[in-house]
C-alpha cells in the first residue's frame, strides 16, 4: 500500500505527495501529459526531442543539471508514446533546489539556438545507436505503421525518420512548449520524509505563480477496427530470421487490459510459458521466443516475438504459434497455471515498489489515468481475474484478423 | 516577488549511516552475509561461486552456469522451472571472469521452499545432453547476433588488449568453440566450481534466524575448496586497434588502461578524478562531446574492479564520421587534467554530487548490501566509506592535477574502435 496526499494549485497543477520516513532522499517527479501520440504526422519525434531541450537551460537558470548536481542530486527523463516524465533524485535536505529548477523550466525555457542544434545532433546519434546500428533495431519502426493505420501509435517516440528531427525549427519548439508544458497539463509527485504542510508551502512558492495555460484537448484519430490479417516481410543483414505477431488489445484503463496482460504472461513470460515449452523446448523451432504487451494508454498491442532456429521456415514457426494460441483459446487455463501467473506478478510488484523513484513515478502515472490510488488497486484487480476472463479475451484477441505479422528475413 | 535567478540555499550532507550486515562464517572460505532491515515482504538471495570464466578453457563456465536448472534424475528442466515460477520466484544466473552468481528474488513466505528447490536442482543437476545441445544452439545464435553490434566487437578486442599478459583473462572465444564443449567438461566444472565452490551467500530480507539456518543447511556442503587464482597485475597493449565493420553507422570506442582497486590508497582520489572526466552527466567528456559537439548519445568513464586489480575505461558510440574529432577531444580532455588546475567551482560541484551519490548508495537494505560487498571483496570494512567522505571534503585541485599527470597519460592507453573507418 503506497500512501499519498493530493492537492491542486489554483493554476491547475495537480500535486501528489508520498511520505516516506525511511529515506534521506527525495524524489521530484514531473509528468507532462504529452507523448509521441500528440505529434503532427509530419513532425514526429518531437516530444522526445523536446525532452532533451528541457535540460538546455530555462528562462531564469542557464543550466539545469549543474545546480542540481551541486545540491547532490541527479536527474533524467523519458518519453513514451503517451507521456513525458522527468525526475530528480536529490538529498531531501536540498529538495527546494529541485523545485526551483523544475518550476523554472515549467515557466519557460531559454530556447537557445545552440541547445536546439546540439540536441538535434544528439537525438540523431540516439536514433542511430538504438534503431539503426543494432540487429533488429528498426523492427518497431516497421511494426508500428503495420499495426496502426490511423492512430498516432503508428510512429515510435524517436520519430518516423531522421529528417523530421533534422528539420525541427525554433518556432516548432516554442509552439510545442506553450501548448503542452504548463501547470494544467502536468502532474507533480514529490516523495520523501517531509511534512505535507511544508510541501504545500514549497510547491505554492515555486509553482504557484506559473500561468495556468489551457489543457490541450486531445482528439486523436481513432484506429478503425481491424478486419484482416496484415503482413509484411522485410530483408535485413542479420544472422537469423525473426517473426513478430502483434495483436490489438484493450486500452490501459479497462479491466480487459489486465486480463490481456495475464494472457501474454501465460503464453510467453518465462520458461514455464506455453510458447517457450512447446516451440523452443519441444519443437526446437526457435532459439528465443516471448510475449509481452506494449502497456500503452490507448488500444495497445500484445506482441509475440521469436528468432528462428537455423533451417526452420517462417511457415513452420507460424503454424506452431497458431497451434499454441488455439490451445489457449479452446481450453480454459487451469487454476494452477492461473495461480502461478498471479504469484509472479505479486513478487514483481513488491520489488518494483521498493524504490522511492518507482513509487513516485507510478503515483504520477496513475493520477494521469484518473486516480493515483489505482497503483494500490492493481493487485486486487488481478486477483479478480478468473479462467473464464482469460478464455474470453484469448478468443477476442488472438485471431488472425486482429493480427499484424512482421517477418524479418536474413540475407 | 519571487527572484527565480537566485538558487535556494544549499544544505550540506553531514551524516551518512552505513549499516553493517550480519556475517556468519560457514568456514574459512565461505560466509553468509545478511541484511535483515527490510521493510517489505521481499527477499533477495544470492549464491556466489568461484566459477568464473578464468577457470575454464572454453565456454564451459558460462554454459554450466546457464544449465544449473537443466534437470535432475527426478525432474526435468520444465518441471523445475514450473515449481519455481509457481512460487512467484524470479531467478538470475550470471557468470563473469572471476565468479558466478545464482540470484533469486521472492516473497518472504516462499523463501525456504525456493531455497530448497533451487539448491536441490543445483546439487543434483545431471546436465542432460539434450539440454546442453539446446543451450549451445541458443548461445551460438545469440553470439552471431551480438557480433553484429559494434559495442560487442569493441569489447572483445578491448579485453584482449587490456589483459594481454594473461591468457585466462584476455581470451576471446570464437563461435566454433561452442562445438567442442562436452558433457564431461560441464559435469566436472559443476563439481569443482559449484558443489565445491560456494564463496558467499547474500541475503537481503526480513526473515528469521531459523530461516537463515535452513539456507545454510541447504548449501553448507558446497563451501569453496578450489583455488581462486586471481590475477593481480595486468599489462595492456598500448596503441590504437581497429575492427572494421562496413555497414556500421556508428563506431564504438573503448579506451583504457590497467589500474588498481579499492585496496590501493590512491583509489578514492582517482575515483574523484575520473568522475570529473567522465562519470556523471555534467562531466567534461559529456559536456564536450555530447552537449557541445553532439557527436554521441552518451559517453562515460568508469573504474572496473576485479579481486586483485582494476582498470580504467572510457566508452562511447559515435557517428562514424566523428571518430577522429572524438578521439582528439578525449585526448584533449585527458591531457588538460594534467596541465590545468580544476576550477574551484567545478571541484566543489563534483564533491557535492559525489556525496549525494554516496547518500543514495546507502539508502535501503539492498543498496547497503551492495556497498558492503564492494568493500568486503577487498577485505575492507564500511569504515572505508567514511574515508571516502573525508577525501571528498579535503582533496584539492593541486592533488588531482598531480594524480592526473601520474596516471592519465595518453600514450599508455589502449584504444579500440569498432565500426566503419
Going across the major beta sheet of chain B, what is the strand order? 1-2-6-3-5-4
Q: What is the count of β-strands of chain B?
A: 11
Distance between the termini of chain B: 57 Å
Spatial arrangement of strands, main beta sheet of chain A: 1-2-6-3-5-4
Question: How would a crystallographer describe the biggest sheet of chain A?
Answer: 6 strands, mixed
End-to-end CA span of chain A:
52 Å
Strand content of chain A: 15-25%
List unreliable stretches of 5+ residues of chain B.
Answer: none
CATH topology assignment of the largest domain in chain B: Cytochrome Bc1 Complex, Chain A, domain 1
The quaternary organization reads as: heterodimer
Main beta sheet of chain B: 6 strands, mixed
Tell me the name of the CATH class of the largest domain in chain A: Alpha Beta
Low-pLDDT sequence parts of chain A? none
Order of helices and strands of chain B: EEEHHEEHHHHHEHEEHHEEHHHHHE
Instruction: List the total number of helices of chain A.
Output: 15
Helicity range of chain A:
40-55%
Q: H/E series of chain A, N to C? A: EEEHHEEHHHHHEHEEHHEEHHHHHE
Mind telling me the C-alpha Rg of chain B?
Answer: 24 Å
Q: And the CATH topology of the largest domain in chain A? A: Cytochrome Bc1 Complex, Chain A, domain 1
The outline of chain B comes out as globular
Helix and strand content put the structural class of chain B at: alpha+beta
Question: Could you list some keywords that capture this structure?
Answer:
heterodimer, A: alpha+beta, Cytochrome Bc1 Complex, Chain A, domain 1, 6-stranded mixed sheet, 5-stranded mixed sheet, 15 helices, 11 strands, B: 421 residues, alpha+beta, globular
Explain what the structure shows:
The complex is a heterodimer of chains A (411) and B (421). Chain A has 411 residues and is of the alpha+beta class. Chain A has helices at 46-53, 65-70, 95-107, 113-132, 139-147, 162-166, 170-180, 196-207, 255-268, 274-282, 314-330, 335-352, 356-369, 374-384, 387-397; strands at 5-8, 14-19, 25-32, 74-79, 84-91, 186-192, 230-236, 242-249, 286-293, 300-308, 403-410. Chain A contains 15 helices and eleven strands. The longest helix of chain A has 20 residues, at 113-132. Chain A is globular, with a radius of gyration of 23 Å. Chain A starts with a strand and ends with a strand. With 421 residues, chain B is of the alpha+beta class. Chain B contains 15 helices and eleven strands. A six-stranded mixed sheet of chain B has the order 1-2-6-3-5-4, sandwiched between helices. Chain B has a five-stranded mixed sheet with strand order 7-11-8-10-9, sandwiched between helices. The radius of gyration of chain B is 24 Å and the shape is globular. The N and C termini of chain B lie far apart (57 Å). Chains A and B meet through helix 2, strand 5, helix 3, helix 4 and helix 10 of A and helix 2, strand 5, helix 4, helix 10 and strand 10 of B.
Amino acid at each position: 500500500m503506497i500512501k499519498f496526499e493530493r492537492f491542486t494549485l489554483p493554476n491547475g497543477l495537480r500535486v501528489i505527495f508520498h511520505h516516506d520516513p525511511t529515506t534521506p532522499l527525495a524524489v521530484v517527479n514531473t509528468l507532462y501529459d504529452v507523448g509521441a501520440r500528440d505529434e503532427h504526422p509530419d513532425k514526429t519525434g518531437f516530444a522526445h526531442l523536446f525532452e532533451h531541450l528541457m535540460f538546455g537551460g530555462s528562462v531564469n537558470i542557464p543550466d539545469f543539471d549543474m545546480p542540481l548536481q551541486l545540491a547532490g542530486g541527479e536527474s533524467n527523463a523519458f518519453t513514451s508514446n503517451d507521456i513525458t516524465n522527468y525526475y530528480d533524485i536529490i538529498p531531501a535536505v536540498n529538495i527546494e533546489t529541485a523545485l526551483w529548477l523544475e518550476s523554472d523550466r515549467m515557466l519557460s525555457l531559454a530556447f537557445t539556438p545552440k541547445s536546439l542544434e546540439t540536441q538535434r545532433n544528439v537525438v540523431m546519434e540516439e536514433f542511430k545507436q538504438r534503431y539503426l546500428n543494432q540487429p533488429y533495431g528498426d523492427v518497431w519502426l516497421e511494426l508500428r505503421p503495420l499495426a496502426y493505420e490511423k492512430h498516432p501509435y503508428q510512429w515510435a517516440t524517436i520519430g518516423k525518420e531522421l529528417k523530421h528531427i533534422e528539420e525541427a525549427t525554433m518556432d516548432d519548439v516554442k509552439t510545442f512548449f506553450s501548448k503542452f508544458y504548463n501547470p494544467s497539463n502536468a502532474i507533480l509527485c514529490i516523495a520523501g520524509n517531509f511534512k505535507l504542510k511544508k510541501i504545500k508551502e514549497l510547491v505554492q512558492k515555486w509553482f504557484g505563480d506559473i500561468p495556468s495555460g489551457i489543457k490541450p484537448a486531445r482528439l486523436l484519430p481513432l484506429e478503425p477496427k481491424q478486419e484482416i490479417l496484415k503482413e509484411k516481410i522485410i530483408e535485413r543483414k542479420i544472422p537469423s530470421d525473426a517473426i513478430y505477431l502483434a495483436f490489438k488489445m484493450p486500452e490501459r484503463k479497462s479491466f480487459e487490459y489486465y486480463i490481456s496482460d495475464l494472457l501474454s504472461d501465460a503464453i510467453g513470460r518465462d520458461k514455464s510459458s506455453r510458447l517457450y515449452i512447446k516451440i523452443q523446448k519441444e519443437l526446437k523451432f526457435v532459439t528465443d521466443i516471448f510475449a509481452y504487451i506494449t502497456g500503452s494508454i490507448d488500444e495497445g498491442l500484445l506482441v509475440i516475438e521469436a528468432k528462428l532456429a537455423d533451417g526452420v521456415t517462417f511457415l513452420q514457426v507460424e503454424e506452431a504459434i497458431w497451434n499454441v494460441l488455439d490451445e489457449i483459446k479452446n481450453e480454459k487455463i487451469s487454476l494452477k497455471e492461473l495461480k502461478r501467473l498471479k504469484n509472479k506478478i505479486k513478487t514483481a510488484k513488491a520489488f518494483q515498489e521498493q524504490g522511492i523513484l518507482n513509487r513516485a513515478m507510478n503515483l504520477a502515472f496513475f493520477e494521469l489515468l484518473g486516480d493515483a490510488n489505482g497503483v494500490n488497486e492493481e493487485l486486487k484487480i488481478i486477483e479478480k481475474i478468473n479462467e473464464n476472463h482469460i478464455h474470453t479475451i484469448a478468443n477476442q484477441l488472438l485471431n488472425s484478423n486482429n493480427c499484424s505479422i512482421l517477418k524479418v528475413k536474413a540475407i | 516577488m519571487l527572484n527565480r535567478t537566485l538558487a535556494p540555499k544549499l544544505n550540506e550532507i553531514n551524516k551518512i549511516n552505513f549499516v553493517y550486515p550480519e556475517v556468519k562464517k560457514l568456514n574459512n572460505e565461505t560466509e553468509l552475509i545478511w541484511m535483515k532491515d527490510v521493510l517489505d515482504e521481499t527477499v533477495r538471495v544470492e549464491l556466489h561461486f568461484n566459477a568464473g570464466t578464468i577457470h575454464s578453457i572454453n565456454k564451459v563456465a558460462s554454459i554450466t552456469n546457464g544449465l544449473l536448472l537443466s534437470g535432475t534424475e527426478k525432474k526435468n528442466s520444465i518441471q523445475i522451472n514450473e515449481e519455481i515460477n509457481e512460487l512467484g520466484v524470479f531467478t538470475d544466473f550470471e557468470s563473469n571472469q572471476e565468479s558466478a552468481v545464482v540470484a533469486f528474488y521472492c516473497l518472504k513466505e516462499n523463501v525456504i521452499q525456493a531455497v530448497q528447490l533451487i539448491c536441490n536442482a543445483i546439487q543434483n543437476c545431471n546436465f542432460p545432453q539434450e539440454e546442453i545441445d539446446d543451450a549451445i544452439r541458443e548461445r551460438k545464435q545469440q553470439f552471431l547476433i551480438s557480433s553484429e553490434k559494434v559495442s560487442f566487437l569493441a569489447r572483445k578486442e578491448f579485453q584482449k588488449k587490456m589483459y594481454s599478459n594473461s591468457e585466462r583473462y584476455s581470451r576471446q572465444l570464437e563461435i566454433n568453440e561452442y562445438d567442442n564443449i562436452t558433457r564431461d567438461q560441464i559435469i566436472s566444472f559443476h563439481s569443482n566450481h559449484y558443489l565445491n565452490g560456494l564463496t558467499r551467500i547474500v541475503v537481503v530480507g526480513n526473515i528469521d534466524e531459523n530461516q537463515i539456518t535452513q539456507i545454510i543447511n541447504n548449501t553448507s556442503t558446497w563451501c569453496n575448496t578450489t583455488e581462486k587464482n586471481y590475477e593481480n597485475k595486468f599489462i595492456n597493449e598500448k596503441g590504437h586497434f581497429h575492427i572494421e565493420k562496413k555497414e556500421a553507422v556508428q563506431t564504438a570506442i573503448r579506451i583504457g588502461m590497467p589500474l588498481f582497486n579499492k585496496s590501493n590508497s590512491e583509489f578514492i582520489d582517482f575515483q574523484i578524478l575520473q568522475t570529473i572526466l567522465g562519470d556523471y552527466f555534467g562531466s567534461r567528456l559529456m559536456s564536450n562531446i555530447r552537449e557541445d559537439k553532439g557527436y554521441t548519445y552518451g559517453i562515460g568513464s568508469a573504474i572496473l574492479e576485479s579481486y586483485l586489480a582494476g582498470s580504467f575505461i572510457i566508452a562511447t558510440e559515435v557517428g562514424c564520421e566523428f571518430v577522429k574529432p572524438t578521439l582528439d577531444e578525449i585526448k584533449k580532455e585527458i591531457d588538460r587534467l594534467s596541465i590545468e588546475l580544476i576550477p574551484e567551482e567545478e571541484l566543489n560541484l563534483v564533491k557535492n554530487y559525489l556525496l549525494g551519490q554516496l547518500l543514495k548508495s546507502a539508502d535501503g537494505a539492498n543498496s547497503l548490501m551492495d556497498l558492503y560487498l564492494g568493500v568486503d571483496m577487498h577485505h575492507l570494512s564500511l569504515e572505508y566509506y567514511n574515508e571516502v567522505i573525508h577525501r571528498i571534503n579535503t582533496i584539492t585541485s593541486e592533488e588531482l592535477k598531480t594524480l592526473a599527470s601520474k596516471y592519465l597519460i595518453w600514450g599508455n592507453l589502449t584504444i579500440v574502435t569498432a565500426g566503419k573507418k
